Known about the structure:
- This protein is of the alpha+beta class.
- It has helices at 27-38, 73-81, 138-147, 197-209, 217-224; strands spanning 2-10, 47-48, 57-67, 88-96, 108-117, 130-132, 150-153, 169-180, 183-190, 239-245.
- Strand 2 and strand 3 (57-67) form a beta hairpin.
- The longest helix is centred in the C-terminal third of the chain and has 13 residues, at 197-209.
- The chain is globular and about 60 Å long.
- It starts with a strand and ends with a strand.
- The mean pLDDT is 96.
Amino acid sequence: MQRLKCRVEYDGTAYAGYQVQPNGVTIQEKIEKALTQMHKGLKVKVTASGRTDAGVHAIGQVLHFDTSLNIPASNWKRALSSMLPSDIRIAEVEQVSEDFHARYDAKGKEYRYYVWNSHEANLFRRLYMYHIRKPLDIESMRTACRLVEGEHDFTSFCSPRTDLKGSKVRTIERVTIEQHEAELVFIFKGNGFLYNMVRILVGTILEVGMGDRTPDELTTMLAARDRKSAGKTAPPHGLFLWDVDY
């Protein structure tokens, strides 16, 4: 028996999220189905670094599973990818120690959120970017980003539908906005993120960019610890799980 660690890329457009659920096709379901076929009907469970919602994409999702198959780690990438649909790809595979855990060993994550800020939509990026027609004040949004860096209680930026019972204190090491003409990339790097946290932060910071809020309101929202005090939740299709640190 060996434990394998995989980096997985996927286009979440057609899926009801990563985690297996009764109503809807998911990324985990497709991967476990492929592994079960490879193991001649023996069910194989995969454990990921975390869940992604319906419509959310990944470049750097990480998962682990145990296998009895005598296949070198170098051959797993091609073998498993060939069993998966074209919108899911195994990018890297390596053998790890038996005590490695994709979720509990993760030290931090990076998410990226893409916005297309132009009056005209981008037809070919519409599934991967949130289209905002109204001009945005980038510098005001960058000021707002700096205010959420550091350790805070992010209750105001967590969906009330979360099943988390513990602390909502998290540390965001860095929040930046890169601009490439009409394309904006929000980059969030931190030790952990709550349910819908990145999407609520993006939605709120975009409201700052549109002039509907001032940057310093982000400080007030954090102190309120109340979801109703923060802005809208940005749609899922602009969000990518970019990297997981171990």
